[in-house]
Specification:
With about 375 residues, this protein is of the alpha/beta class. It folds into two domains: about 240 residues, Type I PLP-dependent aspartate aminotransferase-like (Major domain) (Aspartate Aminotransferase, domain 2), CATH 3.40.640.10; about 120 residues, Aspartate Aminotransferase, domain 1 (Alpha-Beta Complex). It contains 13 helices and 15 strands. The protein has an eight-stranded mixed sheet, with helices on both faces. The two termini are about 25 Å apart. The relative contact order is 0.18. Bound molecules: pyridoxal-5'-phosphate (PLP). The site of pyridoxal-5'-phosphate (PLP) has 15 residues, from helix 4 and helix 5.
């Protein structure tokens, strides 16, 4: 069987070091927000190129706490895309703010900056740029729109740990960066985990307070906060994996290049990389008009492809009819029918990739 993502293969790659890290924590008597979290925060901040990183419980919380730290809440609007993990939108509502969704561009499937003006209102406070599938959104155009209109720029780097935009790591360019470390992510824990990055001292301080009941001093809440603490086991595991992130991202890029050259000339559309972006291929997403038949065909060869994502957020039952969007959501709505994520992870072998390509080449479309 060839799976789409494979966190257990990654555990096996670094098993001895991960087990040693886990053992160290088990014997430490500090299980939550201790020295491992502090060390991870320092190492991740150094890696991303920000002055601060703050460990939190998951990626959704990273976004929610970032929004709250920016003093954005009830009555305020936050603009993002509908073609994303539902978490991006759920986090805006969890912070009490109102999500407003725009379409993505047709080539790279990230936020279409041309629609920002159309949805701008006096209530707009921030834009969340989602670096989807492992590559940067158009941060120049989005960043300019934000600075021209006094808006905060939040980067959702949950699918793009280590990726760059014009030489800088994602998560270091906007006011604040948010990362999920869900097990399948490029930097994945063995459980839930998240990180927030910023070079703004005040924002970092506020995220730290918010993640633990608004405390500066234990048991005294200065602001209303929550529990979004990161535990020591996950931090210790992430520290091991962070050391290999660049190597693993290099393997993903090499696999993506092999797919793209072998699939050249086939009826499916392979992913494009934006000029100025260093892609880390969290997902290798092709576009096809025969998706369901292709999924079934691959399954018959024991190959499991994914769909990211099958229903745009604004059309999901929880949101449909009550979320404001840009007038045209054409690309988002067609991608939901056509995107297909082929297996990709650092341990995927060339032999397996060749099997996927062979199966794709033998596919005879029936027409959906
Ligand atoms: C783009 C994006 N944002 C946010 C999240 C939320 O992260 P988590 O599942 O850790 O809450 C994810 C991952 O699921 C994601 O892919």
């Amino acid at each position: 069987m060839i799976v789409c993502a494979n966190p257990s293969a990654q555990f096996q790659s670094y098993q001895a070091e991960i087990e040693a890290a886990v053992n160290r924590v088990l014997h430490s008597n500090r299980y939550i927000l201790g020295p491992e979290v502090e060390a991870l925060e320092q190492e991740f901040a150094d890696y991303i190129g920000t002055s601060h990183a703050i460990g939190v419980a998951n990626g959704t919380d990273a976004l929610e706490l970032a929004i709250r730290a920016l003093d954005i809440g009830p009555g305020d609007e936050v603009v993002t895309v509908s073609h994303t993990a539902v978490a991006t939108v759920a986090a805006i509502e969890a912070a009490g703010a109102v999500p407003v969704l725009v379409d993505v561009d047709p080539d790279f499937f990230t936020l279409n900056p041309e629609q920002l003006q159309e949805v701008l209102t006096p209530k707009t406070k921030a834009v969340i740029a989602v670096h989807l599938y492992g590559q940067a959104a158009d941060l120049d155009a989005i960043g300019k729109f934000c600075s021209d209109n006094g808006l905060s720029l939040i980067e959702d780097g949950s699918q793009a740990h280590g990726a760059k935009w014009k030489g800088k790591r994602l998560g270091s360019i906007g006011h604040i960066g948010c990362f999920s470390c869900y097990p399948t992510k490029n930097l994945g824990a063995i459980g839930d985990a998240g990180l927030v990055t910023t070079s703004d001292e005040k924002l970092a301080h506020k995220v730290r307070m918010l993640r633990e009941y608004g405390w500066q001093q234990r048991y005294i809440s200065d602001i209303p906060g929550r529990n979004s603490r990161l535990d020591e086991l996950q931090a210790a595991i992430l520290r091991v994996k962070l050391r290999y992130l660049d190597v693993d991202n290099g393997k993903r890029r090499a696999l993506a290049a092999q797919y793209s050259s072998l699939l050249n000339g086939q009826a499916i559309q392979t992913p494009k990389t934006r000029e100025g972006a260093e892609h880390v291929f969290h997902l290798y997403v092709v576009r096809t008009r025969n998706r369901q038949h292709l999924i079934d065909h691959l399954k018959a060869h024991d190959i499991h492809a994914g769909v990211h994502y099958p229903v745009p957020v604004h059309l999901q039952p929880a949101y449909q009819g009550r979320i404001r969007t840009a007038t045209a959501m054409r690309i988002t709505e067609s991608l939901a029918q056509e995107v297909l994520s082929l297996p990709i992870y650092p341990e995927l072998e060339t032999r397996q990739l060749n099997e996927v390509v062979k199966a794709l080449k033998h596919f005879a479309p029936k027409g959906d």
